[in-house]
Design goal:
By secondary structure, the chain is an alpha/beta fold. It has helices at about 15-25, 60-75, 105-115, 120-130, 135-140, 145-165, 175-185, 190-195, 200-215, 235-250, 280-285, 310-320; strands at about 5-10, 30-35, 55, 75-80, 95-100, 220, 225-230, 255-260, 265-270, 290-295, 295-305. Helix 2 links the parallel strand 3 and strand 4.
Length: about 325
């Protein structure tokens, strides 16, 4: 049986742009393993052994730790790029960790650092998508782009990030693997923006879904922040994360949470820490069984209805 390589990546802007940079620099035929943004325990799908290479991008090591150990024990080589919680980083000759959980990092910026800035413009797109607008603008300084061009990259990052959100692939406009392949045909993001049929589809979807979200009144407000509840609908599931980003940008001193009602009960939760502090979201969400993320932005994949009051109390404690 021939050896195989695996590229395992989060289905959002950061995961796609991180892999895009790597494969522009180091072309490789690999099996793609991805999913909706919240589908992060991706390495459990991978079976690899001696001589086979696994590259993991923008998926929490905490959620994939057992799978990493299994792959290493089987003889695979694992390269890991990520900025989410990582409490126990394996020490192994075949494990190459590029992990930084600082609030000013995203995975694509870590890849950019590894590549010496060869495809910086795509790291800028990803940083905008991860709601790191100030970081993105600072990183873009060597590119000497006009304000209008930066706005185009920001819109692209937001649209790519938007496409990753959903309860299942059916909620998305594009399967993230398909979207990656489409983007990978473009070394220059501006050719994707101006020439590819995918971009207007994403942009129009983003605009329409955001308009519906912005018409929803808050369900809870306190000194700590504001919580919104979105209905059980495909548009809600698609917009949940980027709506949280927009709320955070619009009120930088406050925390925000978006609860989206799930089809089979319970809620999908997106949390954004105040942008002036960028801390606490990961600690809050980790108190719940399916929660996790990073300091400034985190989530809970399934919050039972019985736990909503506990979540609200924890939200107030975390950001008071």
């Amino acid at each position: 049986m021939s050896l195989a390589d695996f590229d395992v990546f989060n289905g959002d802007a950061d995961g796609i742009c991180a892999l895009h940079q790597l494969r522009l620099a180091e072309p490789r035929q690999a099996q793609l393993v991805t999913g909706v943004k919240r589908d992060i325990s991706l390495l459990k799908r991978v079976t690899a052994g001696s001589g086979e290479r696994v590259t993991a991008l923008d998926i929490s090591l905490n959620k994939n730790h057992e799978a990493v150990l299994r792959l290493l024990q089987a003889g695979a080589t694992v390269a890991y790029f990520d900025h989410h919680q990582a409490d126990d980083i394996p020490v192994h000759a075949n494990f190459f960790a590029h992990i930084d959980t600082g609030a000013e990092w995203c995975t694509s910026l870590l890849v950019n650092r590894q590549l010496g800035g060869r495809y910086l413009i795509w790291a800028v797109v990803a940083a905008f998508g991860d709601n790191l607008a100030d970081v993105a603008r600072a990183a873009a300084a060597p590119l000497d782009l006009s304000p209008a061009a930066l706005q185009e990259l920001q819109a692209l990052g937001e649209c790519l990030n938007y496409n990753g959100y959903g309860e299942a692939l059916e909620d998305l406009y594009f399967d993230p693997a398909e979207l990656y392949r489409t983007i990978h045909a473009h070394v220059d993001p501006f050719t994707f923006i101006r020439e590819d049929r995918a971009y207007p589809i994403l942009k129009n979807g983003y605009t329409g879904d955001m308009a519906q979200a912005q018409a929803v009144a808050p369900m809870y407000e306190s000194k700590a922040g504001t919580i919104y509840l979105l209905p059980d609908a495909a548009w809600s599931r698609r917009v949940s994360g980027v709506f949280g980003n927009a709320l955070a940008t619009g009120a930088t001193q406050r925390a925000h949470a978006v609860l989206t009602k799930k089809t089979n009960g319970g809620y999908l939760v997106s949390v954004r820490a105040p942008l002036v502090r960028k801390a606490g979201a990961d600690v809050l969400c980790s108190q719940f069984e399916t929660g996790g993320g990073r300091k400034s932005a985190a989530g809970i994949n399934h919050l039972p209805e019985a736990d909503v009051a506990r979540f609200i109390a924890a939200f107030d404690r975390a950001f008071a």
